[in-house]
User: Fold this.
Amino acid sequence: MTAAERADGSSDAVARAAAFVHGPALPDALRALASREPDRVYLKDAGAPVTAAELLRRVQHMADQLRARGVTADSRVALSLPVGADHVVSIFALLELGALWIPLNTQLIGAPLAHQLEDSGATHIVADPAAALTQDPVVRDAGSVADFPGALSQQVCFVVLAGAHRLQQEPDERAGACLLMYTSGTTGPPKGALVTEAMLRAAVLGALEVSAPIAGDVFFVWEPLFHIGGAQVVFLPLFAEVSLALVPRFSASRFWNDVQAYDATHIHYLGGVLQILLQLPVDPAERDNRVRVAWGAGATPEVQTACRERYSFALHECYGMTEASSIITVNADDQEGGVGVPLPWVEVAIRPHAGTSQTSTAPGSVGEIVVRGRIGGIVTPGYLGNAEASAKIRDGEWFCTGDLGSLDAAGRLHFRGRASDSIRVRGENISAWQIESVFGLHPAIDRCAVIGVDAAVGEQEMVLCYTVDAGASATPQEILEWGAARLAKFQVPRYARRVEAMPLTPSQRVAKHKLSHTLEGATDRAR
Assistant:
């Protein structure tokens, strides 16, 4: 689909999208692929190919064995597995059974783990025995090692929770969802967004639009499958003649060698992944490969420019979120295009004034980005067990993203940061994202985040928290002065603090709520 067709939102494009989104169930799509092209390689895991027919066979074995262990359509099953074929098999098996799929970060322990298990009403857990969460007493005391012969290549930890006998919420509260995807929780406790199969298919359709695959393409998959950016990729081979190359986790040091080894054509980026790659020494492997498209979200204009100067791939930027079927806008390598044009089945507007229902599509007006579908069922029914949060994100037909943006004269969306991530300094609402975009390019900085602290006079002051590359010698004062030459005066943080390690979410975003919101150890630029 061309950019003009995306912007058009024609009835034909919307009708085609509706037919796709409300098409056959995903397990049925796998059966159809296995019948039509049984020998097509669906994925490679540690270099070993798995065909469509082999994947289907393993999925059917897994579904049968889960059913024998008491998993039904009323069950809520938490998956905590590394990226790999076993994880993909388990996902399809849960969809086949109609159970609620609850992706969990393998590193969760303690209160965060307890929160997600209790909030979701999870009845079972299927986990990697090496995962940190299996050592948590909640899991360890109830779990046992289990084999799933013919389905999984390795043993897993299988847990039956008390909720298997007494669900904490009524079954109909799922609102038809097949997936409960927890938000990253960068500013507070994660919420469980209900994702229907129609939303999952819309996410796949959006991924196909932004990645623009052709027959024979190979998608390099490092992203965690407990993030919507990874989950949607699992289903791409059902609808395009592509295959997946799976690696257990993101590794900057091995990234380009792995891309070469898998002959990948597409790489996906989230959070600060491109910034991490740009900090690496130049390596012949970063150009000596078949990568044609890097696609994802979070590349600032400065990062996009740096990538175009250094790499040979096209950059396809998009914007979206779990609650709105993952992908809302697409920018197919347009230097000035921001995060792109809304997909035909989505309508985007700007709400210039908080607390009102007035929306605008006028060029240049900055405000909250609001979204509604041109077809039904592509925005979340809400958050499980959280009516207050569910009501807060809806205003009639509009979904309120909590993000700031503007539209230009060509109808392209430009992201301006999160409304909840703005800092009010001396009467100015300042976007932390814009400041981080600049300091993230400092040659000494590895990661950075801007947070607000209470000011002695006025509302808040900004603190730049950052980690440095090995061997870097720049002082906090020098870093702040470097930024002062590139930012408006009101955008320059007063304080800077070097930290040893930056707390990150699974999608490589900074978890700001875990940073110290004090001035301890900070350098004051004013002094």
Notes: Residues 52-68 form the longest helix (17 residues). The radius of gyration is 23 Å. Confidence is low (pLDDT under 50) at residues 1-7, 165-169. The chain is about 25% helix and 25% strand.
